[in-house]
Amino acid sequence: MTVKPGFLRRRPAALTHLALLPSVASMILRNFRVALGLAGLLAFPHLSPAPLIYKAGEGWTYESYGSSGSWQKTRAKDQLEVAEQAFEKKDFDLSLKAARHTVKKWPLSDYAPKAQFLVGRCLEEQKKDEDAFKAYQTLLEKYPKVENYQEVLKRQFEITNRYLDGQWFKLWGVVPFFPSMEKTTKMYEKVIANGPYSEVAPLAQMNIGSAQEKRKEFPDAVKAYEKAADKYHDQKNLAADALFKAGQTYLKQASTAEYDQGIAAKAIAAFTDFMALYPEDKRVAEARKNIDGLKTEQARGALKIAEFYEKKRQWSGAMVYYNEVIIKDPDAPVAAQAKQRIEYLKTLTGVTTSAPATNAAPAAVKP
Q1: In terms of Cα–Cα distance, which of 360, 348, 364, 362 is closest to 313?
Q2: pLDDT tens across 239-294, in order?
Q3: Count of CB atoms within 10 A of residue 295's CB?
Q4: E-strand spans in the chain?
Q5: Is 0.85 surpassed by the pTM of this model?
Q6: DSSP-derived 3-state class of residue 135
Q7: CA 191 from chain center: how many Å?
Q8: What are the residue ranges spanned by the domains of the chain?
Q9: Tens of pLDDT, residues 295-312
Q10: CATH 1.25.40.10 fits 52-63+70-147, yes or no
């Protein structure tokens, strides 16, 4: 047998090609499976997942096979009708998408304000109140001559009321986070700015006071109530309620502080003004009772200060505040105690029966 030249050199390459055949076959099989899967999806498009599509100003939406663009119209009127019909059918996703598309494509048309209002309505139905509030705010700022301006204000007011009642704000618009009276206050302020003399503005101003009370920000709450009483004084019932609540808030503040004669005096002044301006109000008796209680507390506070000075052997200062106790509430038990201490101090050498309050009262006297 004659061996041809070069045969032995070519044989190793042929063997190498044969060794690669299994891997090549495996790759072809994998590609065939992928192709088969794609063919299946194309053959049954209605069973494949709906594509996720993002459009600026409209957000992310899903569109099923065969319906891509079917909800989109070439006229603003027709596009708004799609949104309105979807809303009536409670298809809020489609309604929201169509309404946003109307505003985005025809922002200057007569149908844009209605579409923007529908955006807010859809977001409300989807329990996205904060986003709905913002949508209404955009409507009022972008289309200030919208026909249903007052209705929009009422919806903003009602949304904010839900947050005042404890509804949680959402993190990233999805995750319930916590109630926030600070954010609630800012929302009420926007409602008032949108319509200072609207039907809901006085109520929003009052609710700012309530929100500040919940935050324990009593000075800010008082300011809110006093502003309501002053700005809307022509609304007798609301103004009376505002002034009474200002007094109540001072009362709360006085009860939480260690001792503050100034706060008690402001509370008394608020209740006194309330009784003078609204003598026929059914809460006059309660206001008078609060004043009596505050005067008693003032007397107790003066007694603590007098005892403080007496302990420091500052007899003149002690004498001044014991007399103050008697002036504040002469019929209270603490007044009798103050009289006894005054008689005792008179027996001490160099102590006058009355003296100017030259010594500053201590910043806080613990009970």
Answers
A1: 348
A2: 999 999 999 999 998 877 655 678 889 999 999 999 999 999 999 999 999 999 89
A3: 18
A4: 52-55, 59-62, 170-171, 175-176
A5: no
A6: helix
A7: 12
A8: 52-63+70-147, 300-367
A9: 888 888 889 999 999 899
A10: yes
